[in-house]
Amino acid sequence: MNATLLKGVTLFFFITVASLYVFGQNPTPYIGTPPTFMTLDRTRNPYVKPSYGSNYNNPTATTGVLSGATNFSHKIITQQAQDPCECYPTGTNPPYRYNNILPPGWNGNPAQPLDSIMQIGCNNSQGRNSQQIEYWFIPDTNESVLLVYFSFAQENVDHHTTAENPKFTIEVLDQAGNPLNLGYYKNPNGTDNMNWPYSRLLISPKKVTEAPYPTATPIPFTPRTCPKNMAQNAGFNVEWFEHKPIAFNLTDAAHNNQVIRFRVLVRACQYSAHWAYGYFAAKCIPGKIKVDACGGDDIVMTVPWGFDELCEDCYVWKRGTNAQDAQIFDVANVYEVIHPRDPNYPYFRCEMKSYTGVPFVYEANVKYFELFPSFTWKPIYGGCEYKAEFTNTSKISTIVPRMGGGLDTLVQNIEDVWWNFGDGTTSTEVTPTHVFNTAGPHTVELVVFDNERTCSSDTFKVTFTFDTNCVTEGIATDTVSDCEENLPYISKQDVFEEQYKWASSGTYEVRYPDGSFNGCDSVVKVRFDIKVPKVKIQTTDDFCDLFSANLKAVTETDVMHYLWNTGETTDNIVITTPGKYSVEIVDENDCNASNEIIIPACTPYMVLPNSISPSDKNGINDFFYIPQRALIKSLEFSVYNRIGELVYFTVDKNFQWDGKANGKYYFNNVYNYILKVIDFNGISTLYKGSITVL
């Protein structure tokens, strides 16, 4: 490349890397998705590492400092900038440029191109055969797919040998510089090609055949040529390859908080005879299906644009109650589908491929949102102004998939709101207070959103007018209280006209319309207290050790009455079986409180005798029984004589076998027994043994 190429160089956005980067020093990983990969400024973004090397086969060698005055590599190209690879046909104004149509925007709209791209590569006559730029970052779990738009330009010559061709590498590495484990392209026999990982894309415009390069690039680049008499770098025929999207799935790395090295490498002709440039823009995008499932409308599901030109069925859409039973419902070359609202299918999956053939799976568990906007308002008296407080009473109904199958409907309050007071002011407060200039009428509007901001409601409107009387400061105070279970509290005084209802403790202003004072109505400040007694249940014994426990109701209030779910009315009870126990108390203010405790079932450790001695009639060891019967839900006990005849059977866990066989004693006999027990955890255990009757 000769001095002609340096004309108009001031139009480029050059950054002198010498003052920004010390070669040999690794960048600091950016935590989360970087705001942009299109910068070289290490003083503000120390996660970037630009470099170049004169060793054609070792692109990591860095033998100097990049200089804007002698090198065209590592710079930003924008819509307004010029590039030495552009075409300028005669008579056009402004001149047509091949890169004037920049890559599509990240929203996937080809009509909205990106603002800028990065150029990497340089004038090969400078002796700098390889250039690279590297970014270190830790991907965010919400934006875990790296999308790269890549294109390249080269001097269009036909006499290159295989070894002389330019080459491009786009790769994602771990912190040690190894290719990230994202899987491998397949050999013709279906096995993994260990020289061709999904994490490293090797591009050779002339289809280099020697290893480790593939015999054909997996990306269908479309070349355009620019005759040398129309090229900005006059004297060279230019071959331009349009941008293609390349995607890398970094979801696992994001969840593992793993450092990623994203690197783009350009290697030109090793004999410094011909040149090549690479162009790219990169950004992390979400790795899951975007879902819009609002109200009763059909749901709209979207995956990233740019996966749709490799084949006719690159998007395979599946649905089901979970990932295991998902079935195909659409195979099409579309990145957005509309599906009828159906809560029976909460799980969706899209299986697709990048331009490079890399498989991707995008998933979503659909939540169906129903928004119900509403609010109340009340005037705030006390300053002789038209002041009102607005209370958001909106609800959201969410249908969500349940673990293991099925659906749940959750109804919750909404706190993501937008108010319009009709006088040019708005608010996003949940309970805003607003001062109006006039008595009205005023129309206040409310729009609410779900927690994920997937849906917004219709506008809810209320029109009202203030009372023309204003009010002065409160001239009296009062205190009232009530039990929590009686809420809302309704004022009982006739002068209040029973219009005041309170559901939370606080100080409230109550208006007396007839208490006129200096043109303003009178106000009483009422302190409202809610009586909330509390009770907890304490246990003093280990149920699994003693087969019983003492439960005691503990509270700091004066209790007038106790009631356990066992029917007992004392402050403590003794229990002998596992289960849920609850107590309700009534305090001196006639307020209620309750609590419960779960005594878990224990696994019984069976200790069974091997002999009994009813013959000595001393009242000791006269019976065979289960000491741990409090821990057993049910049993079956069978006794057999030595010839296998059943001589005793019971299902009573409180049994006591006295050694009789068919109603008679046969002392010094050995019997076999089978004991099957089921504990309160539902676990069945079988015991076999023998017992000697002495």
In short:
By secondary structure, the protein is mostly beta strands.
Sequence-ordered SSE layout with sheet pairings:
Layout: E1 30-31, E2 48-53, E3 75-78, E4 116-121, E5 130-138, E6 145-155, E7 167-173, E8 184-186, E9 192-197, E10 200-203, E11 223-226, E12 238-249, H1 251-255, E13 260-267, E14 276-285, E15 290-292, E16 299-302, E17 315-320, E18 327-332, E19 336-339, E20 347-353, E21 359-365, E22 368-372, E23 375-379, E24 386-392, E25 395-401, E26 407-413, E27 416-420, E28 426-427, E29 433-436, E30 442-449, E31 460-464, E32 470-471, E33 476-483, E34 489-490, E35 501-502, E36 506-517, E37 520-531, E38 535-539, H2 543-546, E39 549-555, E40 559-564, E41 572-575, E42 579-587, E43 592-599, E44 611-612, E45 632-640, E46 646-650, E47 669-679, E48 684-693
Parallel strand pairs: 1-5, 32-37, 33-37, 44-48
Antiparallel strand pairs: 2-5, 3-4, 4-14, 5-13, 6-12, 6-14, 7-10, 7-13, 8-9, 11-12, 15-16, 16-19, 17-18, 17-20, 20-21, 22-25, 23-24, 24-29, 25-26, 27-28, 27-30, 30-31, 34-35, 36-37, 38-39, 39-41, 40-42, 42-43, 45-46, 45-47, 47-48
Structure description:
The protein has 694 residues and is mainly beta. The strands form 13 sheets. Strands 1, 2, 5, 7, 10 and 13 form a 6-stranded mixed β-sheet that branches. 1% of the residues lie in helices and 43% in strands. It has 2 helices and 48 strands.
Biggest sheet statistics: 6 strands, mixed
Question: Mean pLDDT, as a whole number?
Answer: 76
> Helicity, in percent?
under 10%
The radius of gyration is 40 Å
Uncertain segments are 1-24, 61-71, 90-100, 207-217, 515-519
Distance between the termini: 112 Å
Query: What fraction of the residues are assigned to beta strands by DSSP?
Result: 35-45%
Enumerate how many helices there are, as a single number: 2
Strand pairing plus helix content: what structural class? mainly beta
Quaternary structure type: single chain
Number of strands: 48
What does the overall shape look like? Answer: flat
